[in-house]
Amino acid sequence: MQSPSDRHEYPAHWEADVVLRDGGITHVRPITEDDAERLVSFYEQVSDESKYLRFFSPYPRLSAKDVHRFTHHDYVDRVGLAATVGGEFIATVRYDRVDADGMPASAPADEAEVAFLVQDAHQGRGVASAMLEHIAAVARERGVRRFAAEVLPGNTKMIKVFTDAGYAQKRSFEEGVVRLHLDLEPTDRSLAVQQAREQRAEARSVRRLLAPGSVAVIGVSRAPGGVGRGVLEHLRDGGFTGALHAVNAAFPADLADVDGVPACRSLAEIDGPVDLAVVAVPADRVPEVVDECGAHGVQGMVVLSAGYAELGPEGLERQRRLVRRARAFGMRVIGPNAFGVVNTADGVRLNASLAPEMPRAGRIGLFTQSGAIGVALLSRLHRRDGGVTGVTGVSTFVSAGNRADVSGNDVLQYWYDDPETDVALMYLESIGNPRKFNRLARRTAAAKPLVVVQGARHSGVPQGHAVRATRLPHDTVSALLRQAGVIRVDTITELVDAGLLLARQPLPGGPRVAILGNSESLGLLTYDACLAEGLEPQRPLDLTTAATPDDFHRALSRALADPGCDAVVVTAIPRIDEATGVGGAAADAELAEALRTAGAQTPDKPVLVVHVELGGLAEALSAAAVTAPRSRSGEGAHLADGTEPPRTPAGEGGEEKPEESRQRLIPAYPAAERAVRALAEAVRYADWRRSAADSGRVPEYEDIDEKETAAFVTALLARTAAAPADASGPDAVAPAGVNGSVAPAGVSGPAPADVNGPPAGAPASVGPDLGPEDTRDLLRRYGIPVRRAVPAATADEAVAAAGRLGFPVALKTTAPHLRHRADLGGVRLDLADEDQVRRAFAELADLFGGADEVRPVVQQMAPRGVDTVVRAVIDPAAGPVLSFGLAGAPSQLLGDLSHRLIPVADRDAASMIRSVRTAPLLFGWRGAAPVDTDALEQLLLRVSRLVDDHPEVVAVTLEPVVVAPRGVSVLGASVRLAPPPARDDQGPRTLPAY
Predict the structure, then answer these.
(1) Mapping DSSP to helix (H, G, I), strand (E, B) and coil, where does residue 295 land?
(2) Do residues 274 and 294 lie in contact, with contact meaning Cβ atoms separated by under 8 Å?
(3) Which stretches of 805-963 are assigned E, i.e. beta strand?
(4) In the 3-class helix/strand/coil scheme, how is 633-656 assigned residue by residue?
(5) Residue 577 has pLDDT above 90, yes or no
(6) What is the pLDDT of residue 877?
(7) Phi, psi at residue 403, to the nearest 5°?
(8) Residue 942 near residue 701 (C-beta atoms within 8 A)
């Protein structure tokens, strides 16, 4: 199948698995000369009408010449792709490069005619739309910039495929046919269309796994015990509403059922469809099960079997074969080594998992990559005995095991518009595609809270998880997730604490917190916890230990009515009425009712309870129907692109429940720190939601010429690929200098970091750094001037350089071991004349040795200010990242850096500067003059634009950047180029390759 073409080798990288509109999978690949029989068979199954619409005349069969033409391609000027299921064609698409007269042509002709044919049985599944994305990507790779297509007016489906794609296009009617011309350059609209189709398709593929009409458990033992038998019992006892089958090839012929469930020796014995297969057989038997499922038309599989990538390379290859084979049949796979899936919806009641008890129905979606963690989370959410936070439930639960196919990204696509899920909780040990996860998380978080805890942060990726290599430290990844609106917590306890609050209470309108209760000490602990989390607490109101439920009701009602209060924390310790002796569960229930009725009077402010030895209170507070979290008066109700996120209905059929039936559950916590931490996360998330409605803008600059700079970058890349960077010239760094970086010249201290080797987060295989002149020239084109540093091997050369630059000057060392070590005395500032330059040069020589060891440079003094560092790198997994911090110890020792994904908007640039812990030094700390942060923001935006406009720029370091009261001065800079990495986020829809 993968034989060489006439002119190019078989382009294996064009192969892809694609999720279609209905959730099924097709495999897209180039057509080869070995596909003649498949093509003929495919064509025979196409209706006469579809053939007519394709060829504009009756065309009952393909001639031998047609078959040869449609199967022999050069993969440059003539390309054909096929969509396959089970190895057989279901659709084809091809392009032929043409000249201005429509005749066959080769490059530099940049137009091609394109044509599709989809089998009638597969029309309406979105096959043609997916094929258009892939053939367009192939064409762009081969230098084709436009498609031309002729379509009969009656072929409305194909016309719609072209017009709905989002590409810039022209349309005309000539000689009885519709002529379409499509510009293949991706547009904002084409990318939005592509991502919307991706969301619908991937969500549908997960929905088929979570809401099947029929389930077969394969590997059910005849005797009680075993994984398969256990899952079968869980499905039956959980009340699964669909058809259920027990399958085992070893069942005797006379066995009719297993505990009332029909027993079968194979899927072929089952009359009717099987939507989901739960596989619990040894790993070496799974391949035959996959083939059996594929032959029966099963839509998806949950593979509980272990023995795959978690065991090492041999298991990894077994896992890859499993996924490839399942996808070939159009099936998606959860697992292998999975714990299972749960859907508590009344119309489904699916417990296809190892959890013995069906979880309580609720509004929380739960995804884990660990079965053990999944058990722990389900237990905490389901606890009924007055546990740490009371009772709640889940909507859906997915434990993906090795997540060889279905991953957290797919489940996010499902949860995004799932009306049964209000809050999403995720335990992740790895993120296979961080760039896509960040995009999906941002969109999901704009509609509903997404809380994530990351495991294996320091121990590396667990065996069995296929992930993309990243060189970003964990703190950077966490910062990027928070930028996307993700609520990042550190433990599963915090995961549950935040999830319960967000599922039960509205989002707070701000950080102002009222505290009231019957324990002064507990109130003070809560007050201190609020301050530690950056909240604004009021002084605690002590109701004294004699407070009755009526006292709590009145105090809570007053606090909620206060316009200066955004949330209330109620603290409670046990109380026994001295007159009646009432206490225990009865007292807890009375207090819970008092708090609940008071909270119902002001439903737009959250209420939390901190209790001590009041387990019954937690359970009593949970005794009500769950409702969705609501933001205040529509704040943050729109996504960044202006569209409205999906709304979760509060009642059946999408209708709002009557207000009198809406009861809020009040979460109860056994420790003040836990309650306040959850509240603080809700406050930060609510603030993000409000700001997400206006994400800012990426500015345009009239002084930037993108096309001219692109040509310059191309020339630089070609030159650096052919030879090392040129370091000659009077103003260049000496050959013994720093790998082509512009020499450092901090005004008041540290010089830039050593740029030998890739910067943190840069791709592993990159080109060399640019020479100093090329670096200055490239940055100048984007409005980023860099002060010149002149190497000086002798005192005379230093004096001459100072004369050319103009006094006063700085003299400093650039040797790697002295960089960023101003404390060692390698910097001499404010040298006002020739004598001072000579004296400083002699002092450096006495301290550190000759010029070869010191590598001295001379640089004109810049205005004094605060030294900062700006970096941009392209991470192979996360994409382009911009970082900012104060130079020296804050960023190097303390890791005090802020990070944003590129492109950075104006709001992002402003928040970057203000989010580092040392930001007060920029705004006049302890009476110092504030520096020009507006100019610093503009510098960040220009660096972001440079990297975004020119993906060949894979690393930029500006250090130090001195921010003065007026303006900024870039004293050191390095730029690294490399061939642009693949941008899979802008390519056609595809599943991760296996």
Answers:
(1) helix
(2) no
(3) 809-813, 827-831, 856-860, 866-875, 879-886, 897-901, 953-963
(4) CCCCCCCCCCCCCCCCCCCHHHCC
(5) no
(6) 67
(7) 40, 50
(8) yes
**Helical segments of 763-833, H only:** 772-781, 795-805
- With H, G, I as helix, E, B as strand and everything else as coil, classify residue 488: strand
Six token digits for residue 678: 């959850």
Q: What is the DSSP letter of 301?
A: E
- Token representation of residue 841: 């040069």
pLDDT exceeds 90 at position 826: no
Average pLDDT (895-904) is 88
What the block records as the tokens of 832 is 């006002």
Q: For position 942, what pLDDT does the model report?
A: 96
SS3 883: strand
Structure tokens at 700: 């345009």
pTM: predicted TM-score of the whole model, two decimal places: 0.82
| Cα–Cα distance, 136 to 95 (Å, whole number) | 9
Asked if residues 575 and 583 have their Cβ atoms less than 8 Å apart, the reply is yes
Give the separation between CA 86 and CA 327, rounded to whole angstroms: 8
pLDDT more than 90, % of the chain: 58
Please report, for the chain, how many H helices and E strands are present, in that order.
27, 38
pLDDT digits (tens, 9 = 90+) for 358-386: 988 889 999 998 888 888 888 777 653 33
387: confidence class by pLDDT, cuts 50, 70, 90: very low
Q: What is the mean pLDDT of residues 540-560?
A: 94
- Does pLDDT of 764 surpass 90? no
Q: How far is Cα 44 from Cα 60, in angstroms, rounded to an integer? A: 8
- 498, pLDDT greater than 70: yes
Separation CA 804–CA 794 (nearest Å):
16
List phi, psi (to 5°) of 762: -80, 155
Q: Is the pLDDT of residue 482 over 70?
A: yes
The DSSP symbol for 44 reads H
DSSP 832: -
Tell me whether strands 953-963 and 567-572 are parallel, antiparallel or unpaired. Answer: unpaired
**Who has greater pLDDT, 459 or 155?**
155
Smallest CA-to-CA distance from 51 within 41, 66, 40, 61 is with: 61
d(Cα 731, Cα 734) in Å, to the nearest integer? 9
- CA angle, 523 then 526 then 530, to 5°: 140
Three-class SS of residue 918? coil
Cα end-to-end distance, the chain, whole Å:
18
- Cα dihedral 667, 671, 672, 678, rounded to 10, equals -50
Decide if 370 contacts 429 (C-beta within 8 A).
yes
Q: What digits encode the pLDDT tens for the residues 580-614?
A: 554 566 778 888 899 999 999 999 999 999 987 65
Q: What share of the chain is helix, strand, coil (3-state, %, to 5)?
A: 35, 20, 45
Q: Which tokens belong to 752? A: 């830039």
**Whether the Cβ atoms of residue 827 and residue 812 lie closer than 8 Å to each other:** yes
Which residues share a beta bridge with 396? 343, 365
Token couple for 619: 């359970």
CA nearest to 129, candidates 26, 254, 4, 244? 26
Where residue 476 falls (left for φ over 0; alpha for ψ -120 to 50; beta otherwise) is alpha
Secondary structure of 79-147 as H, E, C letters: EEEEEEECCEEEEEEEEEEECCCCCECCCCCCEEEEEEEECHHHCCCCHHHHHHHHHHHHHHHCCCCEE
- Asked if 363 contacts 230 with a C-beta cutoff of 8 angstroms, the reply is no
pLDDT (0 to 100) of residue 155? 92
Report the alpha-carbon distance of residue 319 to residue 741 in Å, rounded: 46
Task: Report the C-alpha gap between 107 and 76 in whole angstroms.
Answer: 9
pLDDT bucket at 390, cuts 50 / 70 / 90? very low
C-alpha distance from residue 282 to each of 429, 635, 991 (Å):
25, 52, 27
The yes-or-no verdict on residue 628 having pLDDT over 70 is no
Q: Measure the CA–CA gap between 159 and 180, rounded to whole angstroms.
A: 9
